[in-house]
Design a protein that fits this description.
CATH class of the largest domain: Mainly Alpha
CATH architecture of the largest domain: Alpha Horseshoe
Number of domains: 2
Number of strands: 2
Strand content: under 5%
Helix content: 55-70%
Strand order of the largest sheet: 1-2
CATH topology of the largest domain: Serine Threonine Protein Phosphatase 5, Tetratricopeptide repeat
Number of helices: 24
Distance between the termini: 42 Å
């Protein structure tokens, strides 16, 4: 009999494999529409197959369009790497890559090297990253100037967590093919993940200058700018993306978030409303609408979209948090406590859930339990713990005014 742990591991490996095989550059969902930016690699490997095919066949007027069009960007919330390279990303716009002067000529790349790269992609799709790396290295040994093989190796290295080696591989791909937009995007993302967001911005801008049609690089630039707190520049980058890809609703949500962080609340609300009009079942759009209303101190108006987001996706933590926050602001004591506890049940390891539960205890005058949440947060996230400590201190009576009953542990709520 297969154990549950084994099944979970297989499911995780399958998920990682699908990410590798489906060629997506994706932000993790929480990072994509909520909270701090945390870029994660899945895979930009389609650029490798795209590169092999383009180099082995004469270009046609429809090749770029059919190869790089991003399918259902709005529904998936992801931008494909082919779209990232070409700048289509749901808009249908295309760009033909110019032949790089320094990369190995298509005629000089042996078929064996191309086949090894394709096998590497298949290994990656199965979650077999060591085998993928071995295949890419064999391809590079056969064709040292095969830029796509170096880029593929970088992706596989990143999936393994070796971002230092990934950066070296992406840089090598760029050296071989200076007009290779996918490699610029991959390198920039790896730099963001290693804490070098400023450098990532420069790489993204350089790539965009060489490839003006590669609007997906605007996404990378915007993400890096958000990491550095430069929301003005991030907003500009999202705008540039949406001019070319107005139906990229995931980018529109990110644009709205950047506007909210810059305290441009009305334009942010407009972006989320636009997405809701186009996608009435978009839980991320509703929850970000609610979060923006909360930022405007309009908790009474925020409650409805927060509940709608939760109705659409009962497992969306951010929706549960928004509902709890709205009830806390409105001092709906029982509802706040119920929503906050549900958030903790949904994500017991997320500091945000414990912070909200602590606040819910406070409005219910259950300071003892709020302090327990503070102790939990101290172990999980000291910075978040300080926020709750400040709230607890603000609600505590001076010692001379307390009674023996105030200090006693209350019965479990």
């Amino acid at each position: 009999m297969v154990s549950m742990n084994a099944i979970r591991k297989m499911n995780r490996d399958k998920t990682r494999g699908r990410a590798f095989y489906t060629h997506n550059l994706r932000l993790s969902p929480p990072a994509m529409v909520f909270g701090p930016i945390a870029i994660v690699f899945t895979c930009l490997i389609s650029c490798v197959l795209l590169g092999c095919e383009k180099e082995s066949a004469p270009p046609s007027s429809s090749t770029a369009s059919s190869s790089t069009a991003s399918s259902s960007t709005a529904s998936s919330g992801m931008a494909s790497s082919a779209a990232l390279a070409s700048g289509s990303a749901g808009s249908g716009s295309t760009a033909q890559r110019s032949a790089p002067p320094t990369t190995q000529s298509a005629d000089l790349i042996p078929q064996e090297a191309r086949q090894l790269v394709k096998e590497g992609v298949q290994f990656g799709g199965a979650g077999r990253f060591d085998d993928a790396i071995a295949s890419f290295r064999k391809a590079i040994k056969i064709a040292p100037k095969f830029a796509e093989a170096h880029s593929s190796l970088g992706v596989a290295m990143a999936m393994k967590g070796d971002r230092v080696s990934a950066i070296e591989a992406f840089q090598r791909a760029i050296d071989l093919k200076p007009t290779y937009p996918e490699a610029y995007a991959q390198l920039a993302i790896a730099l963001i993940e290693t804490g070098k967001a400023e450098e990532a911005i420069k790489i993204g801008e350089k790539g965009l200058k060489l490839n003006p049609a590669a609007i997906g690089l605007n996404h990378v630039i915007a993400a890096a700018c958000e990491v550095t707190g430069n929301y003005t520049r991030a907003i500009e980058a999202y705008k540039a993306y949406l001019v070319r890809a107005p139906n990229a609703h995931d980018m529109r949500i990110r644009y709205g978030i950047a506007l909210r962080k810059a305290e441009e609340f009305t334009p942010a609300l407009n972006q989320f409303q636009t997405v809701i009009t186009a996608l009435p079942d978009s839980a991320p759009a509703y929850v970000n609408l609610a979060d923006t209303l909360l930022a405007m101190d309009l908790a009474d108006q925020a409650l409805a979209p927060a509940k709608k987001a939760l109705e659409l996706d009962p497992f969306l933590l951010e929706a549960q948090l928004a509902v709890a926050k709205a009830h806390i602001r409105l001092e709906n004591r029982n509802d706040a406590l119920e929503a906050a506890r549900s958030a903790v049940r949904l994500a017991s390891n997320d500091p945000r859930a414990h912070l909200v539960l602590g606040h819910a205890y406070l409005i219910n005058e259950l300071n003892f339990y709020a302090k327990e949440e503070y102790e939990v947060l101290k172990r999980m996230d000291p910075k978040t713990a300080l926020k709750l400590r400040k709230a607890i201190t603000g609600r505590e009576k001076p010692r001379s005014e307390t009674t023996e009953q105030d200090d006693a542990s209350p019965p479990a709520p």
